[in-house]
């Protein structure tokens, strides 16, 4: 039996949720007191089906990273479908198996790439066929985009640049100009014409407004961390980059959660006291890890993930330039050393006692970033624990849970 299926079978026996939907169901029940959280999960679960249906009925959608393209895509009247959230909202068990069995993917292929290719294969006849591929840090993923062309996907590549270390302002300005012109081409790919700058400017304002509300939620959560536990906070974070295809509803949801948090009764930890923590790295698919953190008395109060909610887009410059500057400031595309100051701020503001570093097994990029961060924070005396997970659904491995337990107990 395939290892992932074995795990799903054993989870079924032990009563652990077996897939993403079951974890969400469990989390919904745990947050029965919060209408906002119920709405959040409704939005998340309807995201892809509604975007796919809308696309068939004339509201275009496009696959993209779902991390920082929202202002450009919404300005092109196009719904972003977040590739990187496919596993959290898809069916990764079957997808990974398909890739391994049908495409004969080598075992050592990153599980994220395998699963994504499988997901697209399953969706080849009935989903959105356009893809905006930001050629970011990852060559395996770039190759994956090449492979899905044969299923009829229409791939538009955005050549990416990274923030230069040498060459001063002049070199940086050249790169910003280049990236802005690449982003302009995205608008041509989607609509056949240049982006409407006024519309994009309004979308940037919207993003900044929504991020301010998201930050307010995190601030209010400091006083009542378990009112919104880790899993829904992760979903809020995901939605902060694409609004689950429904910007107005996502904003109303943020407003509602702010109001709830202002008046909510304190939700105690099952362990008595709460250990504040910062999560750094990938956002993970093993929802059981988040549940374990909560159950063991931890609270993930700040998140340094591919959703840079702590940054503000410049509203006073041409919008494509603003987007290019934002991307060049962004940790996935440049030296992780540039990002240490942001993590330090998060630790300080959230009063975190420790950090959990999460990477996917076999990901050289994530692994190297995390090593650099760990080294820095180790020298500063901030305790941390490294978690290596995989792009899979179902219960996390016992080893991951043991690490989480040992770490939180050490900090208690
Ligand atoms: S986990 Fe790493 S190797 Fe895999 S797709 Fe993501 S960046 Fe690439």
Automatic annotation (TrEMBL):
It comes from the Bacteria. Coiled coil: none annotated. It holds the Pfam family HGD-D. InterPro entries: FldB/FldC_alpha/beta. PANTHER family: 2-HYDROXYACYL-COA DEHYDRATASE,D-COMPONENT (PTHR30548:SF2), 2-HYDROXYGLUTARYL-COA DEHYDRATASE, D-COMPONENT-RELATED (PTHR30548). Belongs to the FldB/FldC dehydratase alpha/beta subunit family. This is 2-hydroxyacyl-CoA dehydratase.
């Amino acid at each position: 039996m395939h290892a992932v299926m074995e795990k799903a079978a054993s989870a079924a026996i032990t009563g652990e949720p077996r897939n993403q939907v079951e974890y969400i169901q469990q989390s919904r029940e745990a947050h029965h007191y919060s209408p906002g959280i119920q709405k959040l999960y409704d939005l998340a679960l309807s995201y892809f089906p509604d975007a796919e249906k809308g696309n068939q009925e004339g509201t275009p959608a496009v696959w993209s990273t779902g991390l920082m393209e929202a202002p450009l895509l919404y300005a092109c009247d196009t719904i972003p479908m977040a590739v990187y959230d496919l596993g959290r909202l898809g069916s990764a068990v079957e997808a990974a198996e398909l890739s391994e069995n049908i495409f004969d993917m080598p075992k050592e292929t990153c599980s994220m790439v395998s699963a994504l290719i499988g997901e697209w294969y399953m969706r080849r006849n009935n989903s959105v066929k356009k893809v905006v591929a930001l050629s970011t840090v990852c060559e395996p993923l770039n190759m994956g985009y090449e492979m899905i062309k044969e299923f009829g996907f229409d791939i538009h590549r955005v050549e990416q640049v990274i923030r230069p270390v040498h060459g001063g302002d002049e070199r940086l300005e050249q790169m910003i100009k280049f990236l802005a012109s690449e982003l302009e081409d995205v608008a041509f790919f989607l609509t056949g014409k240049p982006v409407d700058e006024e519309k994009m400017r309004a979308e940037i304002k919207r993003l900044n407004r929504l991020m301010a509300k998201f930050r307010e939620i995190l601030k209010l959560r400091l006083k009542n961390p378990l009112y919104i536990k880790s899993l829904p906070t992760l979903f809020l974070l995901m939605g902060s980059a694409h609004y689950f295809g429904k910007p107005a509803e996502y904003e109303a949801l943020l407003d509602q959660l702010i109001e709830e948090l202002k008046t909510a009764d304190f939700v105690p930890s099952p362990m008595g006291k709460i250990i504040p923590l910062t999560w750094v790295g990938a956002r993970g698919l093993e929802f059981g890890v988040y549940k374990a953190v909560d159950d063991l008395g931890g609270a993930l109060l700040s998140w340094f993930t591919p959703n840079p909610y702590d940054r503000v887009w410049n509203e006073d410059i041409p919008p494509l330039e603003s987007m290019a500057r934002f991307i060049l400031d962004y940790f996935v595309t440049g030296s992780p050393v540039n990002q240490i100051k942001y993590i330090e701020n998060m630790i300080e503001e959230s009063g975190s006692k420790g950090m959990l570093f999460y990477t996917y097994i076999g990901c050289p990029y994530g692994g190297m970033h995390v090593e650099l961060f760990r080294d820095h924070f180790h020298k500063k005396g901030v305790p941390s624990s490294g978690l290596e997970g995989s792009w899979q659904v179902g219960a996390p491995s016992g080893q991951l849970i043991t690490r989480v337990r040992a770490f939180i107990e050490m900090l208690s």
